[in-house]
Amino acid sequence: MADIAFLLLIFFLVTTTIETDAGLDRMLPPIEPPEEDVVIKQKNIFTVNINKNGQLLVEEELTELQDLREKAMAFLDNGGDGTCNYCKGAGDEASSDNPGKAIISLKNDRETRYGTYITVQNELVGAYNELRNREAQRLYGRDFTDMEAEYLNPETDEDVREELKEKVLRVQELFPQKLSEAETTSN
What we know:
This protein is of the alpha/beta class. The chain starts with a helix and ends in a 6-residue tail after the last strand. It has one domain. 21% of the residues are buried. A hairpin with a 2-residue loop joins strand 2 and strand 3. It contains 5 helices and 5 strands, in the order H-E-E-E-H-E-H-H-H-E. It comes from Robiginitalea biformata (strain ATCC BAA-864 / DSM 15991 / KCTC 12146 / HTCC2501). One of its GO terms (cellular component) is plasma membrane. InterPro entries: ExbD (IPR003400). Keywords: Cell membrane, Coiled coil, Membrane, Protein transport, Transmembrane, Transmembrane helix, Transport.
C-alpha cells in the first residue's frame, strides 16, 4: 500500500504544472555607482505623482488617467534639441531633448491602491510600446510588441531569434525605456 502511495505521489509531482506570476519587468540599477556624476536636466524628467486617492499629478498638473499615455508619448517623442530625426513631436525646447535623454519619474504615496499603481505603470509602458511600434512599422513593417514576443518565445527557431534580436535592440535604442521610481511618500 505504501509503494502505491509513493508512486501516486511521484506521478502527481512530475505531472503537475506550477504557474508562476510574471511580475513587472524592470531593470535594476547597477551595483556600483557610476564613475562620473550624471547630470540630468530638469526638462528631461517627466514627473508623475500618484496620491493616496488615486489622483495623478503630471508635470504639476492634475491629469486624468486616460490622458497619461498621450502626455507621456508627447514628452518622449518631443525631440527638443533637434538631434532626433525620427521624432514626430512638437520640438518644444522646454520639453525633453530626445528619447535617449528622456526619463519618466513615477512617485506614489504609501497608501496608493495597488490597482491604480499597476494601471499607471501599464499606461507608461504602453506609451513606450506605441512609439516603438510606430518605429518598428516604419523600419521593418511589423509591430515591435509582436517581434519582441516572438524573440522572447523559447520555441522560436534560433536563426529567427538571432535576426529578431538585432531588430528588437535597434528599436529599443530608438526609444529606451527609462522609467524611474522615486521613493514613496507617506503624506
